[in-house]
Amino acid sequence: MKFEIMRDHLLAGLNDVMKAVSSKTTVPILTGIKIDVSNEGVSLTGSDQDITIQTFIPAEENGEQIMTITTTGSIVLQARMFNEIVRKLPTNDVEIEVTNGFATYIRSGKSEFHLIGQDAVEYPQLPEISADQQFTIPADLLKSIIRETVFAVATSESRPVLTGVNWHIQEDELICVATDSHRLARRKTKLEQLPTGVSNVVIPGKSLNELNKILEDSTNPVQIVMTNQQVLFKANNMLFFSRLLEGNYPDTSRLIPENYQTNVILDGKSLLQAIDRASLLAREDRNNVVRFETLEENMIEVSSNSPEIGKVQEQIQVESLEGETLKISFSAKYMMEALKAIDGQDVIIQFTGAMRPFILRSVHDDAILQLILPVRTY
Amino acid sequence: MKFEIMRDHLLAGLNDVMKAVSSKTTVPILTGIKIDVSNEGVSLTGSDQDITIQTFIPAEENGEQIMTITTTGSIVLQARMFNEIVRKLPTNDVEIEVTNGFATYIRSGKSEFHLIGQDAVEYPQLPEISADQQFTIPADLLKSIIRETVFAVATSESRPVLTGVNWHIQEDELICVATDSHRLARRKTKLEQLPTGVSNVVIPGKSLNELNKILEDSTNPVQIVMTNQQVLFKANNMLFFSRLLEGNYPDTSRLIPENYQTNVILDGKSLLQAIDRASLLAREDRNNVVRFETLEENMIEVSSNSPEIGKVQEQIQVESLEGETLKISFSAKYMMEALKAIDGQDVIIQFTGAMRPFILRSVHDDAILQLILPVRTY
């Protein structure tokens, strides 16, 4: 195996696959990155068993020659070391050569590194996934869907299935739901193309967070294939595999109230900032609970109280306030994350009394629904 | 006490004094910031006993009215909380009022915070330092002097005096020396104005690092007053006090060799990058040692070897190479820090054999001298 490649292309590819490599793995070869050189280009693979990322760097792209391949072959190199070496090489021309089995030379300018590689045959195979059951979502929309739901997954492992986001295809919609049993985030997305086969999976929150980091904010299509054990996201020379969580995801539709007693429409950003301020004092008591109270004349009040330190109160003018008066307490963190997911638009909050879950939506559409359970303090 | 102030001015002042406040203090009132309101303006004081920072925000600056003072007075407010509250207030107008003893109200827009303050009388007094023994250094030069020496202080407390930088006025020069007994950094600076009185102090490295962060990169003068217990830096509405380290600083002048056997002149930046690359492999063995070898024809070689992982070697063309051939090993970290202090200029390195300390200087001037003890591997 011997090839010369432009350093910045190699670095960009490494940057993606490094996201899958964990230093804490129990499988020694997974501390490495697999490099496969064919006549078409170089593919790099990194994995921590849960997530596997493969990027392909083509020999030529848009008429530009990115590499010169002398002989093909495969090797596994220690990931962190290889990445740091490439990052610090003195020139943009990098020559990589494997001789005598696994002895690897990395040359650039007058600098020569010699690394002891590992046999690529030892590296785990990628899962085989047939592409006939795929559907497509633009990358930027996929990133939004992830951001609007993944924060609500459970961080505790007491019910492992809740640490993932449930992706469920029903009729012509993809419904994504996350809940930690204190709050819930739901995002519905119309699909233009419907897959057959597996229609209900639970994707680990950690995998979705990594996918969100790696995806470009573009309208380029991402192909998605769901199987019983794995989900595969395919974008622009990149394959992202994640294992799925086992177990049945709970039916959350019955949690969402159908009748409401108090409806408030207000500017989400103003409320977010007021809650942020109120939470400064709430945080000190560890429970992070703020109070929300309807007043006369389209005003509400947000307040918080810490006996040791002090208190804060703030009134906010709302666009509309209908129904019964209300005093309710909730987690500032949950409310802030829900408001960030709806992203500063005009928000409607619908309450069913101080003891019942309440929901937040944009007034403009129904795609995103956030539900929060109140805390009993009144 | 009651005044209204523009939030951005209050924040800038808080930002400075917060650098002196530690959450780990054993003196409860030092978790607070002291606010003193006079008719001339507001002064803020923060301290962790080692460092005390006081900033003064004048009521009026360059014809701009920064605050309106209704009544004067003093209060101590919990530092982290007060800082976060001011940071998150909704408008640029902040009203602060103390009523009924220590009950403090912070109002901005429709937001009102109520904090329980502490009696300012409980806050430690600033040390009294007479200003008749001061000398002056421009802020940007003072920052350079700190950066070029402070990295070489000892991190271990086994000889506490070595955790500071020795500032010594001799004839018309300020000589700053730091050493951890494996390497040494020395910076000489001509003074235009000479103080009488105390001429030899040891300033804790931590204090100098904080001072460097807080000083602006400008040519504005900083006045420096050295006493037996404290050093005071005065700049533009800011007072920075540091305690001094006790004990005699060792005489380091005899460590510096007087005769050299090998002299190399080269580009400091190229060497820095080559050492950085070589240290990638050296680091794995924990000792971080790289080798340096003179070759024929104005070439040197930097190399490193880690039996488990591999090796690296790199040749560098130098500007001049005189004297005996040399193979020497040293800490990559020390060499990189020394080269960064000399800052990429043409560097002369002077060796007295593989077992003796060697020195680095700029070829252009003698102000900065860096000394490194080699590691015995050959």
Automatic annotation (TrEMBL), chains A, B:
<feature type="domain" description="DNA polymerase III beta sliding clamp central">
    <location>
        <begin position="136"/>
        <end position="251"/>
    </location>
</feature>
<keyword id="KW-0548">Nucleotidyltransferase</keyword>
<dbReference type="GO" id="GO:0003677">
    <property type="term" value="F:DNA binding"/>
</dbReference>
<dbReference type="InterPro" id="IPR001001">
    <property type="entry name" value="DNA_polIII_beta"/>
</dbReference>
<comment type="subunit">
    <text>Forms a ring-shaped head-to-tail homodimer around DNA.</text>
</comment>
<dbReference type="GO" id="GO:0006271">
    <property type="term" value="P:DNA strand elongation involved in DNA replication"/>
</dbReference>
<dbReference type="GO" id="GO:0009360">
    <property type="term" value="C:DNA polymerase III complex"/>
</dbReference>
<feature type="domain" description="DNA polymerase III beta sliding clamp N-terminal">
    <location>
        <begin position="1"/>
        <end position="127"/>
    </location>
</feature>
<dbReference type="InterPro" id="IPR022634">
    <property type="entry name" value="DNA_polIII_beta_N"/>
</dbReference>
<comment type="similarity">
    <text>Belongs to the beta sliding clamp family.</text>
</comment>
<dbReference type="InterPro" id="IPR022635">
    <property type="entry name" value="DNA_polIII_beta_C"/>
</dbReference>
<dbReference type="Pfam" id="PF02768">
    <property type="entry name" value="DNA_pol3_beta_3"/>
</dbReference>
<dbReference type="Pfam" id="PF00712">
    <property type="entry name" value="DNA_pol3_beta"/>
</dbReference>
<protein>
    <recommendedName>
        <fullName>Beta sliding clamp</fullName>
    </recommendedName>
</protein>
<keyword id="KW-0808">Transferase</keyword>
<keyword id="KW-0235">DNA replication</keyword>
<comment type="function">
    <text>Confers DNA tethering and processivity to DNA polymerases and other proteins. Acts as a clamp, forming a ring around DNA (a reaction catalyzed by the clamp-loading complex) which diffuses in an ATP-independent manner freely and bidirectionally along dsDNA. Initially characterized for its ability to contact the catalytic subunit of DNA polymerase III (Pol III), a complex, multichain enzyme responsible for most of the replicative synthesis in bacteria; Pol III exhibits 3'-5' exonuclease proofreading activity.</text>
</comment>
<dbReference type="GO" id="GO:0005737">
    <property type="term" value="C:cytoplasm"/>
</dbReference>
<keyword id="KW-0239">DNA-directed DNA polymerase</keyword>
<keyword id="KW-0238">DNA-binding</keyword>
<feature type="domain" description="DNA polymerase III beta sliding clamp C-terminal">
    <location>
        <begin position="254"/>
        <end position="376"/>
    </location>
</feature>
<keyword id="KW-0963">Cytoplasm</keyword>
<dbReference type="GO" id="GO:0003887">
    <property type="term" value="F:DNA-directed DNA polymerase activity"/>
</dbReference>
<dbReference type="InterPro" id="IPR046938">
    <property type="entry name" value="DNA_clamp_sf"/>
</dbReference>
<dbReference type="Pfam" id="PF02767">
    <property type="entry name" value="DNA_pol3_beta_2"/>
</dbReference>
<dbReference type="InterPro" id="IPR022637">
    <property type="entry name" value="DNA_polIII_beta_cen"/>
</dbReference>
<dbReference type="GO" id="GO:0008408">
    <property type="term" value="F:3'-5' exonuclease activity"/>
</dbReference>
